[in-house]
TrEMBL record:
One of its GO terms (molecular function) is transferase activity. This is Glycosyl transferase family 2. Keywords: Transferase. It comes from Neoasaia chiangmaiensis. Gene3D superfamilies: Spore Coat Polysaccharide Biosynthesis Protein SpsA, Chain A. The keyword Transferase applies. SUPFAM superfamilies: Nucleotide-diphospho-sugar transferases. It holds the Pfam family Glycos_transf_2. Residues 4-142 form the Glycosyltransferase 2-like domain. The keyword Transmembrane helix does not apply.
Length: 291
């Protein structure tokens, strides 16, 4: 088995159906799907039964409603050489898995790869700012070069670093940056990462209202991981100054909602960075220069 795709989901029947339809269009077909069902219902039974005739589908049930717990739980059922964790509301391009397979054949199943995000209409995403060119990843650009649902790595490396930090992500006090945290731990082992702009996954853009409501939670996750990973002071200040500048500029333009979004982002990052949990884990996290 070449790929294991671990998909945590909670009551998103329509989105999971769309994701499965995207898989049915893949030009590369050697994969399994591990659906981690946190819904506590039979909502996905029909989907699992129908698509199990096309490729292996494992239906794992979980009472714990935390996506990264679901990822780690599903990964323990995986048998593929390469593992990934697509969101239940993303859609792979027809050549997504073919491109990833080619990358790992060229590297001898070494390293990890991530790529770019399109909205469902095929336009560049409005969710955050991302790298504009394909390039190797390092401690400085990982923050704008990796998104969790377009992130592929050898399964043995995922297991070697202990999987996702379950204190991060939706449903926790630190609501983002699970992917960069995992990638930085891989880098500590000497694993190289690459951002490929031609490796595309589609995902629905979040509205400004949704982004505003989540800005603080997402900010706490970044602040926490900045501290945990011993990010350089230059990197830390960059991600504190950007939202502050955005807030002030929005106020000058009389864009109060946008200013509030930036202020929530800044407050979240400060809260996460200076939290007791981040300070404690940083003391026990190894420091190493990663180019």
């Amino acid at each position: 088995m070449r790929f294991s795709l671990v998909v945590p989901t909670l009551n998103r029947q329509f989105e999971v159906e769309a994701f499965m339809q995207g898989l049915d269009r893949q030009t590369f077909r050697d994969f399994e799907v591990i659906l981690v069902d946190q819904s506590r219902t039979d909502l996905f039974d029909e989907i699992v039964a129908r698509y199990s005739h096309k490729w292996p589908v494992k239906h794992v049930r979980s009472d714990i409603r935390k996506p990264r717990h679901g990822c780690n739980l599903g990964a323990r059922q995986a048998v593929g050489e390469i593992i990934a964790f697509p969101d239940d509301d993303c859609i792979y391009e027809p050549d997504t898995l073919e491109r990833v397979d080619a990358y790992f054949r060229n590297t001898g199943n070494q390293g990890f790869i991530t790529g770019a995000v399109l909205n469902l209409d095929g336009a560049p995403t409005a969710m955050g700012r991302w790298l504009k060119q394909s390039q190797p990843l390092n401690r400085s650009n990982i923050w704008t070069g990796l998104i969790e649902f377009n992130f592929f790595m050898p399964r043995d490396l995922f297991e070697q670093v202990g999987g996702f930090d379950e204190n991060l992500g939706p449903g926790t006090s630190f609501g983002s940056c699970e992917g960069p945290d995992l990638a930085l731990r891989l880098m500590l082992l000497g694993v190289n990462g690459y951002h490929d702009r031609s490796l595309l996954v589609r995902h629905m853009d979040k509205s400004s209202t949704v982004n505003g409501s989540r800005a603080y939670d997402y900010g706490t996750g970044m602040g926490y991981v900045l501290r945990k990973s011993h990010a350089s002071m230059r990197t830390v200040l960059t991600f504190f100054i950007r939202p502050l500048g955005g807030a002030l500029l929005s106020l000058l333009r009389r864009q109060s909602d946008q200013a509030a979004y930036y202020f929530r982002t800044l407050l979240g990052r400060l809260t996460g960075y200076f939290s007791r949990e981040a300070r404690q884990i940083a003391r026990h996290t190894p420091q190493k220069n990663i180019s």
